[in-house]
Write a structure and sequence with these properties.
heterodimer; A: 149 residues; alpha/beta; Rossmann fold; 5 strands; B: alpha+beta; Beta-Lactamase; Heat Shock Protein 90; five-stranded mixed sheet; 17% strand; rod-shaped
Chain lengths: 149, 475
């Protein structure tokens, strides 16, 4: 399963490093594509801009999506993913600092598959990443990617 | 009965009473005077006849006397007449047909004078006849009162006619005056009705009225003016209040929005660096731990502990803010079940503790289930925490009704506190115990107080050092 790509949408370099570290600590060796903001995430998913040459049939196994992002925020990214036939079934895990009720409601409203709050304590975060990896990379079966669009 | 009917009846009654009294007076006066006149006439007739009969009596010429009396035919009222001799014997008689009652004998009395009396509805006159100062005999005349009664009857009829005529005229006059009196009252009533039905205080009653009503109308108009003024003042005050409420609401909404975005960024932005501090501290410990001595590792552990603590503070602060602005939905909440669930959770955190938890059955409250859960979580959690230094503990949740108001309480026999500092208990970030003794951020009771206040209730505590604490609250 290590050929499956994880798309990490995260603008904070510290959080990027910590998430990558947490993945490594959990022996999750999958390729991780890091998008610094919503625009980069959408460019990767829809094979535009710097990702124009990417094989559009290869979609990430799971998207770890932060909400507070420069340019295009996480909700907007989620909306685009769900509105597009090719990406609408992709598992999206919102991974964010906020546990505001309004954010959770909005996230699930837009079709998030999961909502995980990043704990302050890093050991807890490692645990959380482990659970996510187990579930989304091993246990969960994704829907086939639609080729029609 | 309407005012108009009453006025008419009053007018007619007054008129009729006056007229009746006047008529009765006239009729009574006429009755007396006419009868007196009748008697006088009859007396004069008797005198005349007497004088004419003197010579006949003196010469005992009965035929002449009767001839004289026969002249009475001309007076149809006279029923009978008789001339008597001085000693009272009948001398000559006159009698209309069917007449009776001629006294057989006159009863002369010394110094007899003219006298009259009434008998069988007739008037009778007996006069002495005097000739040259000596009594020459008597004359008697009986006359019917028909004419008199006819006269009286005529007067009565006239009186009744006058009465009826006067009443008619009075009725007509009163009808025309009634309008003059009633119109302003009706106009006033009309204005009053309009005021009460349409709440229109700007109308005024007309001032073209009699003097007495003018006072009423002016008072009425004055009252309307005052009501209108007050109405306007009230409306202005209300508008002003509404304006102010709108302004305050807008300010409040702005403040709330600000607070919301503030908590949002606190929640999001303040926690992110904490994660970095903790994450990289741990990374240093994990990756370079063997190159560090124990002291350096201890420092990193302190950094991590402080970070955790900061994270807890931020979470508690956000909870306090959330509790303050959360939407309330009141319902019947089973506090007994809630407390049992909380205690079960607490036992799971540390199963080795010997804590006797007594939760009263059937405790219910009207309130927001979520907020009450947060409050009980804090109160029971505190009781659990502050009894942790005792080998055995007893925690109680119950209710009481000391003066009709239901009071809930959470009681423990733990560390308690000095009541001198009770005032500081509910302030945010205020703690009466060091974090090394009992961990905590000092936000829990502030949160509980906020929840109780949002339910319109009150919270207070009783405690003594090492003798436990009891927290009472109402909702």
């Amino acid at each position: 399963m290590t050929d499956q790509v994880i798309l990490l949408v995260e603008d904070n370099p510290d959080d990027q490093a910590l998430t990558l570290r947490a993945l490594k600590k959990n022996q999750i060796m999958n390729q991780v594509v890091v998008a610094q903001d919503g625009v980069e995430a959408l460019e990767y998913l829809f094979c535009t801009g710097p990702h124009a040459g990417r094989n559009p049939d290869e979609m990430p196994q799971v998207i770890l999506l932060d909400l507070k992002l420069p340019r295009v925020d996480g909700f907007e990214v989620l909306r685009c993913i769900r509105e597009n036939a090719r990406t609408r079934f992709l598992p999206v895990v919102i991974l964010t600092t906020s546990n505001e009720e309004q954010d959770r409601v909005k996230g699930y409203g837009l079709g998030a598959n999961s909502y995980v709050r990043k704990p302050v304590e890093f050991t807890e975060f490692i645990q959380a990443v482990k659970q996510l990896g187990l579930y989304w990379l091993l246990l969960n079966q994704n829907a086939p990617i639609s080729r029609s669009a | 009965m309407s005012l108009a009917g009453k006025l008419t009846r009053m007018n007619l009654l007054v008129t009729a009473t006056g007229l009746l009294l006047a008529c009765a007076g006239f009729v009574a006066y006429d009755f007396v005077t006419i009868r007196q006149g009748l008697v006088n006439n009859l007396s004069i007739q008797a005198q005349v006849l007497g004088s004419s009969s003197v010579s006949a009596i003196l010469f005992n010429d009965r035929a002449s006397a009767e001839h004289t009396l026969a002249a009475l035919v001309a007076a149809p009222n006279v029923v009978s007449a008789c001339v008597y001799t001085p000693d009272g014997r009948p001398f000559a008689r006159y009698r209309r047909e069917k007449a009776a009652g001629i006294p057989d004998q006159a009863h002369p009395q010394p110094g007899d004078v003219a006298r009259h009396w009434f008998e069988h509805g007739n008037v009778l006159v007996l006069d002495p006849i005097v000739f040259q100062g000596n009594p020459a005999g008597f004359i008697f005349i009986e006359s019917e009162l028909n004419a008199f009664w006819a006269q009286i009857q005529k007067y009565l009829v006239i009186s009744v006619l006058v009465l009826l005529g006067a009443l008619l005229v009075a009725g007509l006059v009163s009808a025309s005056f009634r309008g003059a009196v009633l119109f302003p009252i009706q106009a006033l009533a009309e204005v009053a009705r309009e005021v009460s039905e349409k709440r229109n205080y700007s109308v005024r009653a007309g001032s073209d009225t009699p003097a007495e009503l003018k006072v009423l109308v002016e008072a009425f108009n004055e009252m309307l003016a005052q009501i209108e003024l007050r109405d306007r003042e009230l409306r202005e005050a209300r508008d002003e209040l509404e304006r102010r409420v709108e302004l305050r609401t807008a300010e409040l909404a702005a403040a709330n929005k600000e607070l919301e975005s503030f908590s949002y960024s606190v929640s999001h932005d303040l926690r992110a660096p904490l994660r970095s501090i903790d994450g990289f501290s741990l990374a240093v410990l994990q990756d370079y731990g063997e190159r560090l001595d124990a002291e350096a590792r201890g420092y990193f552990e302190r950094i991590r502990a402080a970070t955790r603590r900061m994270g807890m503070l931020i979470d508690d602060m956000l909870n306090l803010a959330r509790v303050a602005r959360a939407e309330m939905r009141r319902e019947r909440v089973n506090l007994t079940a809630m407390a049992q669930a909380i205690v079960a959770d607490l036992r799971k955190t540390d199963g080795s503790r010997k804590v006797d938890c007594i939760i009263e059955e059937n405790i219910v409250a009207d309130g927001d289930a979520h907020l009450l859960r947060v409050a009980l979580d804090n109160l029971l959690g505190n009781a659990w925490k502050y009894t942790s230094k005792h080998p055995t503990a007893r925690i109680e949740f119950g209710q009481a009704q000391p003066n009709g108001h239901r009071v809930y309480f959470v009681k423990d026999d733990g560390a308690g506190f000095d009541p001198a500092y009770a005032a500081k208990l509910f302030g945010a970030f205020q703690r009466l115990h060091g974090s090394s003794d009992f961990p905590g951020t000092g936000v829990g009771l502030a949160t509980v107080q906020r929840i109780v206040q949002r339910h319109g209730g009150r919270i207070w505590a009783e405690a003594a050092v090492e003798k436990g604490a009891t927290f009472y609250f109402t909702v």
